[in-house]
Amino acid sequence: MPRMAHIPTRDTAPERALRAALERIGVGPIAANDPGLPGSPDVVLPAARVALFAHGCFWHHHAGCRCARVPATAYPWTEKFRRNRERDLANRDALLHKGWRVGWIWECALIGQHALPQTQLEAALQGFVAGATTFLDLAGTRIVRARVTDAPCALREGGYMAL
After folding, report:
1. In a domain, 161, yes or no
2. Which residues of 22-57 are buried (b: 16+ CB within 10 A; e: fewer)?
3. Where are the beta strands (DSSP E) in 71-132?
4. Residue 162 belongs to some domain of the structure
5. What's the pLDDT at 83?
6. Neighbour-count burial of 145, counting CB atoms closer than 10 A to its CB (0-12 exposed, 13-18 middle, 19+ buried)
7. Quick check: is 18 in a domain?
8. CA dihedral in degrees (14, 137, 89, 156; nearest 10)?
């Protein structure tokens, strides 16, 4: 049985990379893991009403990402990934309904050999924070599906692999 209790849920490498990128572009103030919002977003920019999630590609089963594999163990991974996906979509929809703008910044966009170049990551974040678009789904360079949209219903399965 995997020991998931030992896996950090706060202040992960992707979260630190996201906060560092936001600090480099001068976005602030930055709040972390706001329990008062659906899904307890990893980064909250209250003045801009922006909630950002630094999604781990494995745990959130990122579509098209080689890190989103299903391990060959007895643990019911498919069910776990399905529940994670449903929870992520519900949290995103609840935030959008409350008037927040939501960004899913995937781990592969932030760290690793296929991470976005720093200037491209910062430009995407700055454009989203300063703009009026309601949803950002940002992935690394090996995944050709990063997009910005104002139609969240068109992205019900956006960013996820079919299980």
Report:
1. no
2. beeeebeeeeeeeeebbbbbbbbbeeeebbbbbbbb
3. 101-106
4. no
5. 93
6. middle
7. yes
8. -150
Residue ranges in the chain modelled with pLDDT below 70: 1-10, 142-163
CATH number at residue 46: 3.40.960.10
Q: Is 52 helix (H, G, I), strand (E, B) or coil?
A: strand
For 81, phi then psi, to 5°, come to -65, -35
With a CB cutoff of 8 Å and minimum separation 6, the contacts of 8 are none
pLDDT in tens, 58-103: 888 887 787 777 888 878 888 988 999 999 999 999 999 999 999 9
For strands 43-45 and 50-55, give the pairing.
Answer: antiparallel
Domain around 113:
6-155
- Give the single-character DSSP code of 62: B
d(CA 138, CA 147): 6
Pick from 136, 140, 3, 13: which is nearest to 67 by CA?
A: 140
Are 145 and 64 within 8 A, CB to CB? Answer: yes
- Secondary structure of residue 55 in the 3-state scheme: strand
